[in-house]
Specification:
The chain is of the alpha/beta class and 278 residues long. It is built from 8 helices and 9 strands. Helix 3 crosses helix 4 and helix 4 runs parallel beside helix 5.
């Protein structure tokens, strides 16, 4: 009887020690981070890149839950680095941004954040019709505001050096972020004048005012045959942008992500702009 009791006490002690060790070793993942993974890729000069990915959810000021991905080199996870935010166009999602493009940015020592705008991908639905996000200043602009807030809570994100690259409506979100959220380098591809006016509240009827806030470090890209986008970008460049600024027009009727696919040399122009001004 005494021997059996001794064996029981020994087993119980071992079990408690094991539980205690497990408790010490286990590190909980924050609620906003839903999944972590690592992949191998290649940078823009074909150098190997080890890309870590955090799949996350975050909440906007009007209580919409959005989904995003945060990419980084794990060797620099907690080191301050600039962050490049990639914003997709209308009726698209975060997959618009190829992993080869993301890997190139990571190899250049940037962290990268992609997300699904409300009404797209696995993010919450928009208020009203889907098209309303193109003209409602209280929808898509709140999404980019929530992105900047989330990045401000990350140890390794240098929020004094943020860039935003967007296609179509995403381009106007990038410009809106530069006006209102201290995004340092905005790059807009095929963004339209009407959505810019809706998001910022500035329009041609206000042109008599003595001055407007100016956006610096702006790169605008579009196709010459893509409707009135060239004229719209020129109007934005002339009235709302100060040096350094640049506009590149391609001989094409392609729009947004299709223009990027048609002109892969655009990537080098984007990388060089980031190197100069971010």
């Amino acid at each position: 009887m005494r021997k059996s009791l001794l064996i029981f006490l020994l087993l119980l002690s071992f079990s408690l020690l094991s539980c205690k060790r497990d408790k010490i070793d286990w590190t909980p993942v924050p609620d906003s981070i839903k999944n972590k993974s690592t992949q191998k890729g290649a940078g823009w000069d074909n150098t190997p890149v080890s890309r870590y990915t955090d799949e996350i959810t975050f909440i906007t000021y009007d209580k919409k839950q959005l989904t995003g991905k945060y990419f980084y080199n794990n060797s620099f996870k907690d080191s301050l680095q600039p962050v490049v935010i990639l914003i997709h166009q209308f009726n698209s999602n975060w997959d618009e941004w190829q992993m080869s493009f993301v890997d190139s940015l990571v190899s250049l020592k940037y962290k990268v954040f992609v997300f699904n705008i409300r009404g797209h991908g696995s993010s919450d639905k928009q208020n009203g019709k889907l098209e309303s996000i193109l003209t409602d200043p209280n929808q898509a602009p709140l999404d980019i505001k929530a992105v900047v807030k989330w990045l401000g809570e990350q140890k390794g994100a240098d929020t004094t050096r943020l860039a935003a690259i967007g296609t179509s409506v995403g381009g106007n979100m990038a410009l809106c972020g530069a006006l209102n959220l201290n995004i340092k380098v905005p790059i807009a591809i095929s963004n339209g004048k009407e959505t810019f006016e809706a998001f910022t509240g500035y329009n041609e009827m206000m042109m008599g005012r003595p001055s407007f806030p100016k956006i610096k470090n702006v790169l605008l890209l579009c196709g010459s045959k893509d409707g009135d986008h060239e004229a719209g970008q020129k109007w934005i460049l002339e009235n709302f942008c100060s040096e350094p600024k640049e506009m590149k027009v391609y001989d094409s009727d392609a729009h947004g992500k299709k223009l990027r696919a048609e002109h892969p040399e655009m990537n080098s122009q984007i990388f060089n702009w980031l190197k100069k001004y971010l």
